[in-house]
Structure formats: structure tokens, C-alpha cells
């Protein structure tokens, strides 16, 4: 198991298209030989979605399975109506960050914008609970576009599993013994052996969640960076992780997997007994999170960095 495993198919496909070597693989301008600009940053503000005065007529209102959310769900639907999520112009999500994440996954392929209202615990992705003037507030709201990570995991039995993550993809040991993980970035071995409880790759939007609890850096939405953070690293003891360009292809190969089994998790999807995991940002998919004008996600992330 210590030998370098074959590169996952999704990474080989990107290699063949010349898009997996980060800055080196970006197209060159023949006139100037300058590197072309990166794609729009994760979470780039898209200003308002609808023009002033626009009348929203198809609003879906969904709620988490808790008393506060369910009470407000009945009132919001009675006052503003409700259409199925697949028919909606916008989805109003009543709950906490966990239910918001589930809702974002539900609309990820359709691209329907989601406006969260805090009826949960933390509410980092949510707006304050205000019942009045909902359609007007939706029209005035500003959006942040989030792109998911795509995980491609191969198990010891050869099963291939794929999943998307808007927060993070992380690997974690399944037994009492520490995991041993080899880390490759854009096809190059960057860390031959990380002995640890696990390792995670986060989106900027997810950098304030598990990544922050694991002492990883908070990343501004406009940074075009993905934090790679060890979880309880034993060797090398001084390695604190890395900030990778959003174009990076990350491969995580499990060493001594029979003795030291490892699971991989992408938001809500867990795959047990993996031997290799490839992770990269999927720019073909995106979802828009709506915030009140004075409650932008970028501002919240800045504030979080000064919270003590």
C-alpha cells in the first residue's frame, strides 16, 4: 500500500485537458505571455439578482425539523404562499446552517438562489428572522456564488464513489491507530507521509466551520484559495497545512490502509475504507446564497477573524 496508487480517472481527464497544474496550466496570452486571470472567485458578490420593483410570485418556503422553524414555516407559507422547490424563483430556508447546507445541495444543479432565515443555533449562513416584507427583502438581497468541491473516492474493494461538498472534504481514521496519508497536489508528491487523525480540504465558505476548529486559516471568499488542514497531526509535527489555489487537484493516498483504515466525508456523504481520494473545485456548478445588504457573507468572514 505504500506504493503510489494510480491517479483517479477524474484527475487523469483534467490532466489530458491541461488544467491540473495550477498556475502553470493556465492559458497564456500569445501577445503578452501574461497569465490570464483566474475565474471569478468563490463567493464573488453578484449584487442583486432581480431589478428594483420586481415582483416575486414563485417562492418556495422550506423549514428544518425543529419547533421554531416549523412554527415560522406555517406562518410564512400562509402569508406569502409556497410552490415546490423545483418550480421556485427563490427558496426561503428556515433553520440553521446544517439545514441550509442540505437545501443548497438540493438546488445545486438547478442554480436556484436560496435566502436563509435563522431558526437554528449558529446561523452563520442565515439572515435575521423578520417576517414582514419578505418579497421586498428578497429583491433587495445580494448574492454570493459558491462552487462545490467534487470528491472522487476509491475503496479497498474497488468501488468508486463521487460526492459534492460546499463546506469541506475530510479524511478521518476509522480505528484507534493514526492514519498515514500521502498528499499530492497537481500530480506532485508534496508530503510523503502525514501521520494524523485526518486531513481536510475546505472551500472558502467552509473555512469557518470544521477547518477553523482544526486550527486552519479563515479564507476570504475572493481569495481563490482552498485551505488544506491536518487534523491532529503527529508527524510531521510542525506541519500546519497549506493554502492551495482553487485550480489545484488534490490527491490523498492512504498508506497501510488494511491496518489503518480511513473514511472520507464530503458534507453529508461518508465513504468507508478508502484507498485514494481526489478532490478539486467544480466550477461547472454553483449556487447563490442571498444576504441582506448589510449582512454579506464576505463581511461575516472578516468579522469572524477578529472574534475572540
Summarize it.
This protein is an alpha+beta fold. The protein contains six helices and 18 strands. The protein is elongated and about 60 Å long.
What this model shows, in words?
It is built from six helices and 18 strands. The protein has 308 residues and is an alpha+beta fold. It has two domains: 45-146 and 286-304, Rossmann fold; 148-281, Sandwich (Tumour Suppressor Smad4), CATH 2.60.200.30. The protein has a six-stranded mixed beta sheet, with helices on both faces. The chain starts with 8 loop residues before the first helix and ends with a helix. The model is unreliable at 17-42 (pLDDT under 50).
List the helices and strands and how they pair.
Blueprint: H1 9-16, E1 45-48, E2 59-63, H2 67-80, E3 90-95, H3 97-107, E4 114-118, H4 134-140, E5 142-146, E6 149-155, E7 160-165, E8 168-173, E9 179-185, E10 188-196, E11 198-202, H5 210-213, E12 225-231, E13 242-245, E14 250-255, E15 262-266, E16 269-271, E17 274-281, E18 287-291, H6 297-304
Parallel strand pairs: 2-3, 3-4, 4-18
Antiparallel strand pairs: 1-5, 5-18, 6-7, 6-17, 8-11, 8-15, 9-10, 9-14, 11-12, 12-13, 14-17, 15-16
Task: List its traits.
Tumour Suppressor Smad4; 6 helices; Rossmann fold; elongated; single chain; 308 residues; alpha+beta
Amino acid at each position: 500500500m505504500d506504493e503510489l496508487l494510480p491517479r483517479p480517472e477524474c484527475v487523469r481527464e483534467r490532466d489530458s485537458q491541461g488544467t491540473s497544474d495550477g498556475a502553470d496550466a493556465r492559458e497564456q496570452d500569445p501577445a503578452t505571455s501574461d497569465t490570464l486571470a483566474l475565474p471569478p472567485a468563490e463567493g464573488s458578490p453578484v449584487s442583486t439578482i432581480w431589478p428594483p420593483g420586481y415582483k416575486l410570485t414563485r417562492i418556495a418556503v422550506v423549514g428544518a425539523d425543529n419547533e421554531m422553524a416549523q412554527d415560522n414555516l406555517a406562518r410564512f407559507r400562509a402569508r406569502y404562499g409556497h410552490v415546490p422547490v423545483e418550480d421556485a424563483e427563490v427558496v426561503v430556508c428556515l433553520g440553521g446552517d446544517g439545514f441550509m447546507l442540505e437545501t443548497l445541495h438540493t438546488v445545486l444543479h438547478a442554480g436556484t438562489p436560496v435566502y436563509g432565515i435563522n431558526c437554528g443555533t449558529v446561523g452563520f449562513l442565515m439572515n435575521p428572522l423578520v417576517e414582514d416584507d419578505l418579497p421586498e427583502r428578497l429583491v433587495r438581497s445580494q448574492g454570493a456564488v459558491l462552487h462545490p468541491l467534487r470528491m472522487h473516492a476509491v475503496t479497498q474493494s474497488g468501488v468508486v464513489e463521487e460526492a459534492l461538498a460546499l463546506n469541506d472534504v475530510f479524511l478521518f481514521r476509522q480505528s484507534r491507530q493514526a492514519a498515514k496519508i500521502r498528499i499530492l497536489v497537481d500530480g506532485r508528491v508534496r508530503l510523503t507521509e502525514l501521520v494524523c487523525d485526518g486531513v481536510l480540504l475546505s472551500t472558502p465558505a467552509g473555512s469557518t466551520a470544521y477547518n477553523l476548529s482544526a486550527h486552519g486559516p479563515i479564507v476570504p471568499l475572493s481569495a481563490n484559495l482552498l485551505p488544506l488542514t491536518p487534523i491532529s497531526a503527529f508527524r510531521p509535527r510542525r506541519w500546519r497545512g497549506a493554502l492551495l489555489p482553487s485550480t489545484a487537484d488534490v490527491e490523498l493516498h492512504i498508506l497501510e490502509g488494511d491496518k489503518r483504515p480511513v473514511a472520507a466525508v464530503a458534507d453529508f456523504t461518508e465513504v468507508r475504507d478508502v484507498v485514494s481520494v481526489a478532490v478539486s473545485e467544480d466550477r461547472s456548478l454553483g449556487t447563490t446564497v442571498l444576504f441582506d445588504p448589510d449582512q454579506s457573507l464576505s463581511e461575516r468572514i472578516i468579522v469572524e477573524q477578529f472574534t475572540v
